[in-house]
Design goal:
By secondary structure, the chain is an alpha/beta fold. It is 47% helix and 12% strand. The structure holds 2-acetamido-2-deoxy-beta-D-glucopyranose (NAG) (2 copies). Keywords: Glycosyltransferase, Membrane, Signal, Transferase, Transmembrane, Transmembrane helix.
Length: 511
């Protein structure tokens, strides 16, 4: 009798012990980053783990097992002057150097935020795992190294060379597109060269930039407080246990991925959809010809559009038979009967509604993921960052049209709307992709929890580490072999030259 009770007790203890202390670091100011961080926290908290969540948007009331570490100071550094629609219409596309610099600022602020310092300086705060967002800098690897815990990178988009190099190797530019660019493989000769150039250029930018190293050096007191030596950033950056990718093959391409890459695209979508306000529900239910939902996302505000453009869009919408729901942050004058302006939108619930027939979007990665999740075709108006490539992908997959942001876009938008809604092939295509998206052995949330726990239970999952990480560039490229061949050829050449030179000289001597 005693033995079974002991076994039972042991099992119970094991189950209690299965609650791990996990830190989740999503410090970037921006709604989409918060949505992604919140999603990770939601799944892990529901699985019963103790979560410490570094976020610029802490909730007042959250689950009992979630502790919020407020880094809302990061909002002070938010470049509001450049991150608005008017600016994007008037200027050149955002350049990579600006993105890198801005991101470094956020990383630095986060590390020096008093609430974060407090954790580092308190050795009682121990963690079993740290999950950090990657955003154009490897600095967040420091969270794992300082706290002495295995860490997981979160890549917020489809896999691309900049993140894959951290867990395996940079993807081949001949057939994989840079995330900030436009255009998809197969590439023309010019595009292929440009992709290679981008990889070299961005590597150069990162190499030349000294501020990342300076910020990392400034973390020395944290390592000291924890009694740890500070390893070089280059060492810890490539030491993640795995990478969660906010991606899925239905959204991107079937690229080669290492074992340590786990695609969990769509995990941010809560299976419990947010409620739709009553008046909006009526608009949706009563739309005779279907609803077009129009939103430029959470960072870009439609209110920043030039007045002239707003007017031309309203005029064009008035000519449509469809109902239009436009997420717009201010009260608009002269709104036609079939257009409904809403300040805030329960986006997933609208996309889920059977009357919703089309989504006009900026093509952010979360929005494009949601369109495939709910099987709705889109018109993409890309504005910055990965939005161009997201929209190009959707167009190539056959469920989207691209319209570029311009003063005269209303006409082009109208043509695109009619094309998509009069030809059933767009909706059929997105439904097909939606099936592929949902047809997985486990939900992305379940995978997330499984692999996070797997890393903890296997102490950093070293068995998933790609051997490519430990091979220097010259060996991968066989530059040593090349050098050897060149050397042998040189020796042979010299020897041959000597033999031919010596012969006449010998003859000369004997004569
Ligand atoms: C690399 O990760 C492993 C597993 O998490 C850990 O044991 C090791 O200390 C890490 N190395 C460095 C330099 O942080
Ligand atoms: C990082 O932040 C600290 C404190 O806010 C500041 O003193 C320092 O200049 C910053 N470093 C860089 C490289 O931006």
């Amino acid at each position: 009798m005693k033995l079974p009770i002991a076994v039972l007790l042991a099992t119970l203890c094991l189950q209690v012990g299965d609650s791990f202390r996990i830190m989740v670091v999503f410090p970037l100011p921006g709604k989409s980053h918060t949505i992604l961080g919140d999603g990770i926290v939601r799944h892990l908290a529901a699985a019963g783990h103790e979560i410490t969540y570094v976020t610029p948007s802490p909730r007042k009331i959250g689950p009992k097992n979630v502790r919020y570490i407020d880094v809302s100071e990061n909002y002070k550094n938010f470049p509001t002057d450049t991150m608005n629609l008017k600016h994007f219409m008037e200027s050149e596309p955002m350049d990579t150097k600006f993105v890198l610099e801005t991101m470094l600022k956020f990383h630095n602020e986060t590390y020096h935020c008093p609430n974060v310092r407090e954790i580092f300086f308190d050795p009682n705060q121990q963690f079993d795992l740290v999950i950090v967002e990657w955003m154009f800098s490897e600095l967040n690897a420091g969270f794992g190294a300082i706290l002495g815990a295995p860490f997981i990178w979160v890549s917020t988009t489809e896999p691309h060379w900049l993140v894959l190099r951290l867990i395996d190797e940079a993807s081949n530019p001949a057939f994989s597109a840079d995330i900030m660019g436009s255009g998809l493989p197969p590439f023309s000769f010019k595009e292929r060269v440009s992709q290679l150039f981008t990889q070299i250029f961005v590597r150069g930018l990162k190499f030349m930039d000294s501020s990342e190293g300076k910020i990392y050096s400034s973390l020395a007191p944290y390592f000291k407080a924890r009694g740890r030596d500070q390893p070089p950033l280059q060492e810890i950056a490539f030491n993640a246990s795995l990478m969660f990718g906010n991606s899925h093959v239905s959204l991107g391409q079937a690229v080669t991925l290492p074992e340590s890459y786990k695609a969990i695209g769509g995990y941010h979508i809560d299976s419990k959809l947010p409620p739709i306000p009553e008046d909006l529900q009526k608009v949706l239910d009563n739309a005779k010809h279907g609803v077009i939902y129009f939103s430029m996302g959470s960072n870009l505000k439609s209110k920043d559009l030039p007045d002239e453009l707003k007017k031309s869009l309203l005029k064009m919408f008035a000519e449509l038979k469809y109902t239009v729901i436009w997420k717009f942050e201010e009260v608009l004058p002269g709104v036609p009967d079939n257009v409904h302006i809403i300040q805030w939108a329960p986006q997933t619930s609208i996309l889920d509604h059977p009357k919703c027939v089309l989504f006009i979007t900026h093509g952010g990665h979360l929005s494009t993921t949601e369109t495939v999740h709910f099987g709705k075709p889109i018109i993409g108006i890309p504005v910055f960052a990965d939005q161009f490539i997201n929209v190009d992908r959707a167009v190539a997959k056959g469920f989207a049209k691209r319209v570029d942001l311009s003063m005269t876009m209303a006409d082009k938008l109208k043509v695109a709307i009619n094309e998509i809604l009069q030809d059933p092939k767009f909706t059929a295509k997105v439904k097909e992709l939606s099936f592929i998206y949902h047809d997985r052995p486990a939900t992305p949330g379940a995978e997330l929890v499984h692999w996070a726990e797997h890393v903890i239970k296997t102490r950093g999952a070293p068995h998933l580490r790609s051997p490519a990480l430990d091979v220097p560039f010259y060996q991968k490229m066989y530059l040593d072999l090349l050098a050897l061949i060149v050397a042998v050829l040189l020796v042979i050449r010299t020897a041959v030259l000597r033999i031919f030179k010596k012969k006449p000289s010998k003859k000369q001597k004997t004569q």
